[in-house]
Amino acid sequence: MTKKIAVLPGDGIGIEIVAQAVKVLECLNSDFGLNAEMEQGLVGGSAYDETGSPLPEATLKLAKEADAVLLGAVGGYKWESLDISVRPEKGLLGLRSELELFANLRPAILYPQLAHASTLKPEVVSGLDIMIVRELTGGIYFGQPRGVRELENGEKQGFNTLIYKESEIERIAHVAFETAMKRDKRLCSVDKANVLECTELWREVVERVSKDYPEVELSHMYVDNAAMQLVRAPKQFDVMVTTNMFGDILSDCAAMLTGSIGMLPSASMDKNQKGMYEPIHGSAPDIAGQDIANPLATILSVAMMLRYSLDAEELAVKVEKAVDDVLNQNLRTEDIYTQGDTKVGTSAMGDAVVAALKS
Ligand code: NAD
């Protein structure tokens, strides 16, 4: 059956890096039987320039009708002075909420070939492969009531609400267990159940959902300990699942263990395995249009798309292996280059991944 992919390059380096990911998808179509139809749309600053909106109706329709969305990045200096309602980032947030993408999957993978790029000792991080599953549309970032109020004595008081319904915890727990089933079958749920009632409920519901996944070994960890363990011995983790705010913080911490922003993909999923796939980095206007951006995070986002939305695990593994192959050939874009490597541009890196796929 034909799968539909909405391709949204966005702004800045988004255009160059997505072009490389499209080369990979075209190769999978022609040589490996992937039956994917790609259609491009505008999002972010470039969409604003063309239509007056960072998320035009046509793009939203395209994304809604697709099986998966491939996104580059949005934003840039040019649009920084725009009113907040039409800034490029609104396009991204609009897509996340309109598509109800409640589960954010962020792997932190460190290829042994790039272990020197981390600020941690190579033996601590070499071969690191963690998946953080973060709840993306609930918790304290969205909870009501919220605001800043004035007390009787005139002092101001700020407040937010950490709030989760059982159904919200259940659905993210299912995503996490399903993700663990596709990996090493170990899941660590991170909470603060010793202090916060809301995450006491989180723990209870995750325990309950675990009955559906007897093969997955479930553990629980308080968030302060999890932060410490991520830096002390990160390789102990396989999949971690946590709330919106804890996930925000822990996933950035885990990403930085790897030291190379141009290498990390991400997925944001709805309840039907439909997802939006994008590199974790931004539009990097400082290097846009120079053919020096690293396209591997975007190409690895394609691998996630194949695995989680297109039911093509075999092809996902092939793409990941092709990336591993080009690193073994010592091909490096500028951001991951060290002396002795062969420096290549964005487009040449895309071509090298395609050649590795075909070899
Ligand atoms: P950034 O991630 O774009 O760049 C940070 C640094 O990393 C820059 O020096 C950049 O050159 C480098 N870098 C990023 N990706 C790279 C790659 N693939 N290869 C090589 N080097 C790479 O973050 P920023 O500079 O804070 O933000 C720039 C713009 O991107 C802003 O407008 C911001 O709002 C936007 N942004 C968008 C997203 C998104 O679309 N998901 C995420 C973060 C930032």
Structure in words:
- The protein has two domains: 1-106 and 261-359, 3-Layer(aba) Sandwich (Isopropylmalate Dehydrogenase); 129-257, Isopropylmalate Dehydrogenase.
- The longest helix has 19 residues, at 14-32.
- Strand 8, helix 7 (197-210) and strand 9 form a beta-alpha-beta unit.
- It is of the alpha/beta class and 359 residues long.
- The chain has twelve helices and 14 strands.
- It has a ten-stranded mixed beta sheet, sandwiched between helices. The protein has a two-stranded antiparallel sheet with strand order 6-7.
- The mean pLDDT is 95.
- Residues 13, 17, 73-76, 89, 92, 261-262, 278, 281-287, 293-294, 297, 335 line the site of nicotinamide-adenine-dinucleotide.
Short description:
With 359 residues, the protein is an alpha/beta fold. The chain has helices spanning 14-32, 45-51, 57-65, 88-98, 122-125, 166-181, 197-210, 223-232, 244-258, 296-308, 313-328, 346-358; strands spanning 3-10, 36-40, 68-73, 103-109, 129-135, 147-150, 156-159, 186-191, 217-222, 239-242, 265-269, 275-279, 331-332, 342-343.
